[in-house]
Amino acid sequence: MNYFELQENAMSLFEKFSYRNKRVLVVGGATGMGAAAAELVRDAGAEVVVMDRGEITLEGVRTIYVDLSDKHSIDQALAECDGKIDALFSCAGVADGTPGIERINFIGHRYMIDQIFASERFNQGAAIGMISSAAGMGWEANLPELIEFLAIDDFDKATEWTVEHEKCNYMFTKQAVCAYVARMAMPFLKKGVRINAILPGPTDTPLARDNADSWLAFGKDYRDEAGVEVSTPMEQAGPLVYLCSDAASVVSGITLITDVGFTSSAVSDVFPSAKMIVNFLRGVGGGAAGGSSNAPQVQRSTATKADKPKLPEVNPETRMLIDGKLVEAENGATFNNINPATEEVIGAVADATRADMQRAIAAARRAFDETDWSTNRDFRKKCLIQLRDAIMEEREELREQLIQEAGCPRMSTVRQQLDASFPEALDYPIGLMDRFDWEVELPDGKGSQGEPNARRIWKEPMGVVGAIVPWNFPFEVAINKVAQALATGNTLVLKPAPDTPWSATFIGRIAAEKTDIPAGVLNVVTSSDHLIGEALTMPPAVDVISFTGSTSVGQRIMEKGAATMKRVFLELGGKSANIVLDDANLDSALMGALAVCFHAGQGCGIPTRMLVPKARYEEIAARVKGIMQMAPYGDPQRADVMMGPLVSAKQRDRVLNLIDIGVAEGATLALGGNRPSAFENGYYVEPTLFTHVDNKMTIAQEEIFGPVLVLIPFEDDDDAVRIANESRYGLVGSVNSTNIDRAMSVARRIRAGVMSINGAYAHGADIPFGGYKFSGIGRQNGEAGFNQYLETKSIAWPIPKK
């Protein structure tokens, strides 16, 4: 049964709540949502224990007094509530109208959760549900303060901190809940416990009605847009109870705004939508639209064509940076930048000629040969700090440009597209400049006549770097190349993909207007002609090519650069395998299926092959299909969308062609596989799942670069390793197992440059990224990436006689 069918029959959802024979603890169950949650789980068959300091009148539940402001009271209450726990609902908040709040109840909730973990009283598969509020929205913007607070584990010291910093208020406690869920979702999941939080708007209670002007008016705009009225406690408690049920085991670690159904994930790059949950729990419309009953969820704007939503205004740089000046193309030509979500022209940019590229190369050569850029490390560091700070000032402008030109969902920009990669991309090499061994002193040696020699190793910049970057993560890849190449003393010519030129010209403008980077050190050349980038690979004036893109283009770059013996760094394609061993926690491991939906599968390191035990293949196939059906895709401007369009019509058609090949070769198309009928415009492809796939099929061997997952069975660990390595690529791999030693043993046998165990994330400015075999040469980031922009010079000289 898919989720569209569940929506038609909401009662079947309650049948799947699976609270029979479960033991549930509700904290704060005397009134409001706590009482409603307790009533729901009681009626669903659970043994319910309710803790509160207020009078509890609910029949059929056990009651225990607790004062969350007193840790001794919490300890006593937990001692009285003996036995294991399957679900914990933390419902006591500060929305009780009490003037002069002296502490926030979140501290007590957290202490209680810590004590339950310490006493090993959570059953495997247990769930925690917390209540935040619509007032908790925007918690990401307050992260530094929230991180400081959450780092204080001690009950009394945390309380002192909130008083000292004047944070004993409603909004901060609700934001703390969100940040706590975001911080603890993965650690808890590894212990076999899920945690979720809901962010409801005002609840229709007597206290809320007494404060209607301030409370019930809050969030009116988004409720009006969704056609949702102020909720009753029972309506709000429904999603909370659902998220902690067995039926929701695939939506681990999300925060949920129940009024509208927006979600933001607390688990790395996993963004299941709660829109369907909200709709069939509350009976409101506006969730899914279009597609077959087998299709995943579509998230689209509710506006009509006549009232089309206006895109956020952006101010892109349309000029190139050559020899320190922002310039048009030599012949004045431009080319259009297309929004992949709308297929509309959103602006233009300079369309360089070969003469423009030659000027940029000459400027970079001159800057390297005739200035002290390559030797003046203090000056380089100053300039890179200026570049970092200036980009930070305009980060929100960059975010909007990325969404519009790359079609990347807004939520992806708080991950790898932008926030997860910057400013670390500059911070790391800036810091490494001070720590790096630019000169290594070796033990004295002997000369040809046996005389003593002093010996050193010097690290020196290579010269002019030609950096060619792709369209899938245009800023993230570009800023990492720029940062490491310039930090090591090289000069650079940056050539972005024609599909996403603005992220590069953005860097160029910032460098020209807000830094002291000398003319010629950094150049940015945009062109609609891919062969303009190839012009970097041939002239002797260019010493290094740093390329991220397809394997076929990487091979051509190696061929063209061979005549001038260019150094090459190539970060190329992948067909990564995600191995789910037979002892893996399927609730968390199978969530990896959603990775192919992140940015529409347009990532070289995305695990597009999922290898699962043959003995459980059909069961897993059904679960994976259900998970992928939850993937919300559509308008990338929306906050609840994890997957937008492909970058271009060409890429969309290539993906659809490979899907057709998969069907023709005999794989089972279990989900998706088409252009969604819900969108008249945009380069969209539905999230797609193939089952009964042989690893020799084209769809298991070719890099599709789209939202397509293939599910492949294996017999045992040796068979899984064989299948994973049966690929010309070797970029990324994943292993899932509850036995870390077993997972490590399998990971060591996978021929890939980056490995993930149980969802861990081996990516960042300080860790090398790159692959084996046809996935490339060299590494991006880390000290290995820093080193690849440096030459090694060995030197010796006679030691004078004393």
Secondary structure elements and pairings:
Elements: H1 3-8, H2 10-15, E1 23-27, H3 32-43, E2 47-52, E3 62-65, H4 71-80, E4 85-90, H5 106-118, E5 122-131, H6 143-150, H7 155-164, H8 170-190, E6 194-198, H9 206-210, H10 220-226, H11 233-243, E7 254-256, E8 263-265, H12 275-282, E9 298-299, E10 320-322, E11 325-327, E12 334-339, E13 344-350, H13 354-370, H14 377-393, H15 395-406, H16 410-413, H17 424-435, E14 439-446, E15 452-461, E16 464-468, H18 474-487, E17 491-495, H19 502-514, E18 522-524, H20 530-534, E19 544-548, H21 551-561, E20 567-571, E21 576-580, H22 586-589, E22 607-613, H23 617-629, E23 633-634, H24 649-664, E24 668-671, E25 688-691, H25 698-701, E26 708-714, H26 717-725, E27 729-730, E28 732-736, H27 740-749, E29 754-757, E30 772-773, E31 776-777, H28 782-787, E32 790-798
Parallel strand pairs: 1-2, 1-4, 2-3, 4-5, 5-6, 6-7, 9-23, 16-17, 16-19, 17-18, 19-20, 21-22, 21-28, 22-26, 25-26, 28-29
Antiparallel strand pairs: 7-8, 10-11, 12-13, 14-15, 15-32, 20-31, 24-25, 27-30
Helix pairs in contact: 3-11, 4-5, 6-8, 11-12, 14-17, 14-19, 17-18
